[in-house]
TrEMBL record:
Pfam families, A to Z: PPK2 (PF03976)
Keyword set, alphabetical order: Kinase, Transferase
Organism: Paraburkholderia silviterrae
Single annotated GO MF: polyphosphate kinase activity
EC number: 2.7.4.-
Composition bias, Basic and acidic residues: 1-38
Coiled coil: none
Claim: Kinase is one of the keywords in the record: yes
Family: Belongs to the polyphosphate kinase 2 (PPK2) family. Class I subfamily.
Region (Disordered): 1-46
Protein name, per record: ADP/GDP-polyphosphate phosphotransferase
GO terms classed as biological process: phosphorus metabolic process
InterPro entries per the UniProt record, alphabetical: P-loop_NTPase, Polyphosphate_phosphotransfera, PPK2-related, PPK2_PA0141
Length: 303
């Protein structure tokens, strides 16, 4: 998978950061112990990013996402991105940041509900396959087939044998997806227990967010270490050379979104597609048109 992209070329300031991270990596490319996913939430906090700085960088990256979109349409590329993480890790917010300026017919979000009784009787991957990208599509899975390795395993919605079988099978399935020409990216958003507590408590207190908190979320919160073990098993079994997991430190929402988007752009060898120049045409003449005297039901102008 090519790693030189317009997004990387446009942002040379991070070279020193890359060199520092490279020093910490061992010969296999795995991150050393100090950078383990379990420690993701314990990294030293950078200064808080201002809303102005965040918006400026997100706007810049959004321009690149539009270029990626136009390239995908022009070339028929098929791109599939998986977003996984604990409740409150920021999956929704990151996806919304990506979707802010792009075409929702090209970038599509897939967030499947709990399986129906019919779907439970099918081959596990069957309900996900119809949502894989066609040519010129970029699919963002807000949770994915990895539900089996996470929530289903922890909450007992599948047997331990089914979970273990899934972890054995999924690398082969993902290799088949990629062999068919689909670019597959997998992101795990990692937060600390303290930050998860803060975010879930804010949902309890904020009437705008309370709908996000379900009994399942509360039970998942209680089972922090069960989820930690499930995550560890999942990454160990499915972090492959052809389909690696990328872990995002997500305690800082703004930085997490920007880091993930920038990394995603760096992994896809898109090119800027030339557009023809466009200008507005002259409007037709009114030819005597008169607006009707119709009693329209107008919305009150309260603002």
């Amino acid at each position: 998978m090519a790693k030189d992209s317009r997004a990387d070329k446009a942002d040379k300031a991070d070279k020193a950061d890359k060199a520092d991270k490279a020093d910490k990596a061992d010969k296999t490319g795995k991150v050393q112990k100090s950078e383990k996913v379990q420690k993701a939430g314990g990294a030293a906090k950078a200064a808080k990013m201002s809303e102005k700085a965040y918006r400026k960088e997100l706007d810049r990256l959004s321009v690149e996402l539009v270029k990626l979109q136009e390239w995908a349409v022009a070339t028929g590329a098929r791109i599939c991105v998986l977003f996984e993480g604990r409740d409150g890790a920021g999956k929704d917010g990151t996806i919304k940041a990506i979707m802010e300026r792009v075409n929702s017919r090209v970038f599509r979000v897939v967030a499947l509900p709990a399986p129906s009784e019919r779907e439970k009787s099918q081959m596990y991957m069957q309900r996900y396959v119809p949502h894989l990208p066609a040519g010129g599509e970029i699919i963002l899975f807000d949770r994915s087939w990895y539900n089996r390795a996470g929530v289903e395993r922890v909450m007992g919605f599948c047997t331990e044998q089914q979970a273990v079988q899934f972890l054995h099978d999924v690398p082969l399935l993902e290799q088949a997806i990629q062999s068919a020409g689909v670019t597959l990216m997998k992101y795990w958003l990692e937060i600390s227990p303290e930050e998860q507590t803060r975010r879930l408590e804010s949902r309890i207190k904020d009437a705008r967010k309370v709908w996000k908190l379900s009994p399942m979320d509360l039970e998942s919160y209680r089972r922090w270490y069960d989820y930690s073990r499930a995550r560890d098993d999942m990454i160990a079994a499915t972090d492959t050379e052809h389909s690696p997991w990328y872990v995002v430190h997500a305690d800082d929402k703004k930085r997490a979104r920007l880091n993930l988007i920038r990394h995603l752009l760096s992994q896809i060898p898109y090119e800027e597609v030339k557009r023809r120049e466009v200008s507005l045409p002259a409007r037709q003449k009114d030819k005597g048109y008169v607006a009707p005297d119709y009693p329209y039901r107008l919305v009150p102008e309260a603002y």
